[in-house]
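Troubleshooting: if your tokenizer reports a length mismatch, compare your output against this known-good record of 372 residues.
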Amino acid sequence: MVRNDLEDRILGCIAGAQVGSALGDPVEGWTAEAIEAEYGWLDFLDSREEGGEIKPPGTTEDGIERQKLQILSIIDNNGPITGQELARTWLEYIDADMFGKREGFLAGKQDQIHFELIAANIPPEDSGYHDAHPGRVGPHRASHANGVVNACYPRLAAQYAIDIARLYQPPKGRGVVDRDPTYTIGLDWSGAVCAAIAAAMRPDATKDDVVDAATEVVIPEVADAITEGVAIGREHDDYESLRAGFYEVFHGRNSNFGMTISRANEIVPKAFGLFVFYDDVRAVMEGAANFGRDTDCLCALAAGFMGAFTGSETIPDEWIAQVDEAATMSYERGQTCTDLSLADQAAGLYDATVAHHERIQQGAGAFEKLRA
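Known-good structure output:
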């Protein structure tokens, strides 16, 4: 049982992300039409085949492995973490052979690049320069815990998030920056995501406050993209027209450029659009899961925002139980970094968040004495 509103919002954010990922992952990469043909409306956690085995309903994926490692690091460090501290957590909790979806592991091959660089003693802040897919959403859709631990301090959350994002991506992308800067920008998306979560946890926050917090900490191109996503979310009254509105902007695929449905300049604005469109966590999860394209990343972000904003009440208990059970099974098979339940993850983050804010208050008290 959660102790108070703070812990409930932490649980809402983390469970929103992880349950949402489990809901959206079986249809990742599908078109909206294909999802409708198979499910009608996807509103339950389904199994999937991966690595030659059937993953049970509730199984998460590589983005949640990144999130769990950040949660473990924050818990172990009893407060916000830098890239250096996260890198040490990688070496503690990951084995070198724990990568590859085709091999049955939950961590992806793109993460193995950075793990091996860190293991070779490359400075963590330089790891992102070697990323294979600059501009992908993967690091940012995993960064919720940085917003949580800096609850109510959006700019501070953004600063920590951007530092951690350097493990995964370069400060700027490569190749098509001049044509569309938002396509390959790396770090600002994490700043926007975590600032939004930190702002959403303020007890008097409005959705406008959440959006404003995100757009105030990033470069203009990223702020404009988020603003466009919010505008689409607000100008439609029904789900079908909302989805069609986003598909007018994001619809293409390119087999010659990897992960074209998983770009941050698409998924992050969409997540903000769904956040302003819906009012509870389950609804936004289902909406994202049935959207088509990169459904698991979209679920993780949109539901994470909503969970931080409203708490965990609208997340079905049976979905949380399924995710916890699947995590235990994956851990027993050596396929994931931890079997901590969602409640235990939230409790650990709560303790670290309280400790961090107590240190801030102590500093403020000392500062006031200087002014006396």
